[in-house]
Design brief:
Oligomer: single chain
CATH architecture of the largest domain: 3-Layer(aba) Sandwich
Shape: globular
Strand order of the largest sheet: 4-12-11-10-7-5-6
Strand content: 15-25%
Low-confidence stretches: none
Number of strands: 17
Distance between the termini: 38 Å
Number of helices: 13
CATH superfamily of the largest domain: Type I PLP-dependent aspartate aminotransferase-like (Major domain)
CATH class of the largest domain: Alpha Beta
């Protein structure tokens, strides 16, 4: 089937929940993808920060093939060897003590919300249920996580929304302190707001948030679904800040392209969950855990983190130079290989022109060009992307 045939069939049978680009991707290798017409593209979206090792990484493919021939699924009524090994790897490379596995970032955040409330009620009483999040945040698409998300555009039309969420401006410690009340049980933040426009937290802000949480007996939750697992140049984004959360959530890059999510927690918090409190039928099943274990071992063993930091610095410097070329470039920001270029104009036309020239990028928050290339990207590929980007931006003058 060609692009047009796939699009026509999709429009007939698939729900219209995405503003899809006029193409169907059918193949990927490393930092490159091909559409149904055989056209090649440099992928700086990476499945929205999912394909951190690039497409069809051999270690991930081998792990999936091997596991698929052995045992696909057995449920969490039984111990799963690859899941246990994955939990060990995540715990040993973070401040957490225990892991819970699910299928997505939204599920991981749902679990974090439930765990925080259960902990607070057990330790402080039934009136503790409120979670403070940041405006411009994004935490998922379930009813609870769109309510946790501090952007009304994701909530419109789905009312009534669940109770128990309050929003404060990001990087504003005073606003957070003023919002604390008798029902507050936790603060939930992204170390880098991805969908909100690639906005890193200020180090002093996160340190202040941690101090407030400790003083008030609140839990600190970090949503690292997009920023975690090497994306910022460290295994987890909180490691840039020296601030440890009580709970953190992961997904996207965890499975190397295969769907899996995780919620990690320190032991004093994790132990309030008992059998029957929370579950996920498919969460961390043998196939998903095997893919994730291979992906995470590769991330930690093959210099991927170091590459993400070095190439991220190089790419950010090159993007920063665009301020001297184009008057509508307002700011360049980000950490590692989650980078954003904020414009004073809308970015959708630039995205479309990049697509025409063989580069996949996307635009978030209307006017922020977001770059999420695979963490294995090299300088030559960054330079190719920059050449296309500059050409696309030049026609916006």
């Amino acid at each position: 089937m060609n692009n047009q045939e796939i699009m026509a069939m999709g429009q007939q049978y698939v729900m219209n929940t995405y503003g899809r680009l006029p193409m169907a991707l059918v193949k990927g290798k490393g930092a490159w993808v091909w559409d149904a017409e055989g056209r090649q593209y440099l992928d700086f979206v990476s499945g929205i920060a999912v394909n951190s090792l690039g497409h069809t990484h051999p270690r991930v493919v081998e792990a999936i093939n091997k596991q698929a021939q052995t045992l696909l699924h057995c449920s969490n009524l039984y111990w799963i060897e690859s899941q246990v090994k994955l939990a060990k790897l995540l715990v040993e490379n973070s401040c957490a003590d225990k892991a819970f596995f699910c299928n997505s970032g939204a599920e991981a955040n749902e679990g974090a919300i439930k765990l925080a409330r259960k902990y607070a009620k057990q330790h402080y009483g039934p009136e503790k249920y409120e979670i403070i999040t940041a405006t411009n945040s994004f935490h998922g698409r379930t009813l609870a996580t769109i309510t946790a998300t501090g952007q009304t555009k994701y909530q419109k039309g789905f009312e009534p929304l669940p109770q128990g969420f309050t929003y404060v401006p990001f990087n504003d410690l005073n606003a957070l302190e003023q919002a604390l009340g008798p029902h507050t049980c936790a603060v939930m933040l992204e170390p880098v707001q991805g969908e909100g426009g690639v906005i890193p937290a200020d180090p002093s802000y996160l340190m202040g948030v941690k101090r407030l949480c400790e003083e008030k007996g609140l839990l600190l939750i970090f949503d690292e679904v997009q920023s975690g697992l090497g994306r910022t140049g460290k295994f987890l984004a909180y490691q840039h800040y020296g601030v440890e959360p009580d709970i953190m959530t992961l997904a996207k890059a965890l499975g190397g392209g295969f769907p899996i999510g995780a919620m990690l927690a320190k032991d004093h918090v994790a132990k309030v969950f008992q059998p029957g409190d929370h579950a996920s039928t498919f969460g961390g099943n043998p196939l998903a855990s095997s893919a994730a274990l291979a992906a995470m071992e590769t991330l930690l063993q093959e210099g991927v983190l170091e590459n993400a930091q070095a190439i991220g610095d190089y790419f950010k410097d090159k993007l920063s130079s665009l301020k001297n070329k184009f008057s509508y470039v307002k700011e360049v920001r980000g950490l590692g290989l989650i980078l954003g270029v904020e414009l004073t104009i809308e970015g959708k036309d630039i995205v479309a022109r990049c697509l025409e020239q063989g580069l996949l990028i996307n635009c978030t928050n209307v006017n922020v060009l977001r770059f999420l290339p695979p963490l294995i990207i090299n300088r030559d590929e960054v330079d190719q992307a920059l050449d296309i980007l500059i050409g696309a931006m030049g026609t916006s003058l």
